[in-house]
Design brief:
Length: about 425
C-alpha cells in the first residue's frame, strides 16, 4: 500500500476489476473466438480478489503498528494527511469503512505499549503539577524566611532600644533620688531656720540689740529658699522625664510582645497582622481559592463563574484576606449596577468611591494576542472579560492579584450584572 495508495487513480477496486478481466458479473469467458474473431482472456478467480483485499488490509495495519512503535500513540487521520511518508487516510477509510473501524480492527486500544505510554504521560503530568506545587512552596518558604529575618532584626533593634531606655531610666532614678535628698536637706534647713532665728534674736536682746534678724541670717534664709525652689523644679523635671521613660519602655514592651508573636506566627506560616487575619475576628481565608469560595457564598449580587475558582486555585497570592475584602466591595458595586434606573455615576467612578483600584478594560492588542485568555463560559454563554480590579502591590503573583469581570447589561439571555471570570494571576497583556 503506502505511497501507491496516494495515486488516487490507482484504487484497489479498479485494480481488482483489471485483474478480473471483463467478466465483472462473475461469468467465465469461453476460450473460443469472439464474434470479431479475437481470442478472449480466461475469467478471473474470486480468491485472488479476496487475497488482494487482505494484502491491502495487512499493509495498512503494518503502517499503523509502525506509527505506534515510532510515535508511541495512536494516529489521527490528520496526522497521515499531512505526511507523505504514510498512506493517505482515505485508503484506510475505503478499505475498513471508517477510521474508527480501522483502529478497532487493529485492536490497539489496550496495547501494552500504549498503556505504558499513557501511564508515563499521566505520571509526567503529576510530576509537573508536583513541581509547580514545590515551586510555590519554595516561594512561600523564601518569603517566610525574609519576613522572619525582618522580624528578628526589628526585635534586635527593639531590644537595644529597650536596654538604652532602661539605662536612661536607671540614671534618671538615681538623679531623682539625689534631688529628693537635696530637697529633704533644704526643707530640713528651712524648718530649722525659724528656731535658729529665734535663738539669734534672744541672744541679741540679751546683748542689748534691737532683736531684729541680722542681714547675714536673712541672706542665708533667702539662699535656702532659692535652693529649695531650684531643687523642687529639678525634681519635677526628673519626675516628668522618668514618666516619659517609663511610657516609652511600656511601648517597647508591647512592641516586643508583638514582634515575638510575629516571629512565632511566621515560623508556623500563619498570618501576622489584622489585615492578613481577615479582620478583628481573625477569621482569615487561607488561600485565594478559599477567599473566592467565601465571597461566592456571601455574595448577594456578584456572580461567580466556575473559571473564577479554577484560576483562584492556581493563584499564589499571599494576602487572601485582601482579596476577600475586594470581592465583598465588588458585590456592593454589583448591587448598584443591578438597578436598570442607574445610580448617578459611572461604574468606574462608583468602583473608585468604594476604594477599588478599577481598570476600565484591556487593550485591543492584548485581546487579539490572547483572545481565549479573556473569555470564559457561564451557563452556556461566552463572557468577554475586560474591566478588572488590581489587588496588592509589588511584583510577582504572590504580591499582586487581579479580579477580571464581564459586565452584562441584560440585552442578552444573561441577567444584568457583574460576572467574575478570573481571580488571581495577571492575564497576559502587551507587557507580558
Amino acid at each position: 500500500m503506502g505511497k501507491r495508495a496516494r495515486r488516487r487513480g490507482d484504487e484497489p477496486g479498479q485494480r481488482d476489476a483489471g485483474e478480473d478481466g471483463e467478466a465483472k458479473d462473475g461469468t467465465e469467458a469461453t476460450d473460443g473466438a469472439s464474434p470479431g474473431g479475437a481470442k478472449r482472456r480466461p475469467g478471473g478467480d474470486g480468491r485472488l480478489t479476496e487475497v488482494s483485499y487482505l494484502i491491502a488490509e495487512a499493509d495498512l495495519l503494518l503502517h499503523l503498528y509502525r506509527w505506534i512503535v515510532l510515535m508511541g500513540e495512536v494516529p489521527k487521520a490528520q496526522d497521515w494527511l499531512a505526511d507523505e511518508r504514510w498512506p493517505h487516510p482515505d485508503a484506510a477509510i475505503e478499505t475498513f469503512g471508517s477510521w474508527e473501524a480501522y483502529l478497532k480492527a487493529a485492536e490497539v486500544a489496550d496495547a501494552p505499549l500504549l498503556v505504558r505510554a499513557r501511564r508515563h504521560e499521566e505520571e509526567a503530568k503529576r510530576m509537573a503539577a508536583r513541581e509547580r506545587e514545590l515551586e510555590r512552596e519554595s516561594e512561600r518558604a523564601a518569603d517566610l524566611r525574609r519576613r522572619v529575618e525582618v522580624a528578628t532584626r526589628r526585635r534586635e533593634e527593639a531590644d537595644a532600644a529597650r536596654e538604652e531606655l532602661e539605662r536612661r531610666a536607671t540614671r534618671a532614678q538615681a538623679r531623682l533620688g539625689s534631688a529628693e535628698e537635696r530637697a529633704q536637706r533644704a526643707e530640713t534647713a528651712l524648718t530649722e531656720q525659724p528656731a535658729a532665728a529665734q535663738r539669734a534674736a534672744e541672744a541679741a536682746r540679751a546683748a542689748g540689740a534691737a532683736g531684729e534678724p541680722s542681714e547675714e541670717w536673712l541672706a542665708a534664709h533667702e539662699a535656702t529658699l532659692a535652693e529649695l525652689d531650684s531643687v523642687r523644679a529639678h525634681r519635677a523635671e526628673l519626675l516628668d522625664e522618668l514618666a516619659a521613660l517609663r511610657e516609652a519602655a511600656e511601648r517597647d514592651r508591647r512592641a516586643l510582645a508583638r514582634l515575638s508573636a510575629l516571629m512565632g506566627e511566621e515560623g508556623n506560616g500563619e498570618p501576622s497582622d489584622e489585615s492578613a487575619m481577615g479582620g478583628p475576628d481573625g477569621d482569615a481565608p487561607a488561600s485565594a481559592l478559599e477567599a473566592v469560595r467565601r465571597a461566592r457564598a456571601e455574595a448577594e449580587h456578584l456572580v461567580f463563574t466556575d473559571a473564577a475558582e479554577e484560576s483562584a486555585a492556581d493563584s499564589p497570592y499571599r494576602r487572601p484576606a485582601d482579596l476577600l475584602e475586594t470581592l465583598r466591595r465588588l458585590d456592593r458595586l454589583a448591587g448598584l449596577h443591578a438597578s436598570e434606573d442607574g445610580f448617578g455615576a459611572s461604574l468606574g467612578q462608583a468602583a473608585r468611591d468604594l476604594g477599588l483600584a478599577w481598570k476600565h478594560g484591556v487593550s485591543d492588542t492584548a485581546r487579539s494576542r490572547k483572545p481565549h485568555a479573556y473569555a470564559v463560559t457561564h451557563d452556556g454563554h461566552r463572557l468577554e472579560l475586560g474591566p478588572h480590579v488590581a489587588v496588592g502591590s509589588g511584583s510577582g503573583a504572590g504580591y499582586v492579584a487581579r479580579v477580571y469581570l464581564a459586565v452584562e447589561d441584560g440585552t442578552r439571555d444573561l441577567p444584568r450584572g457583574l460576572y467574575v471570570g478570573h481571580v488571581g494571576r495577571h492575564l497576559p497583556d502587551t507587557t507580558t
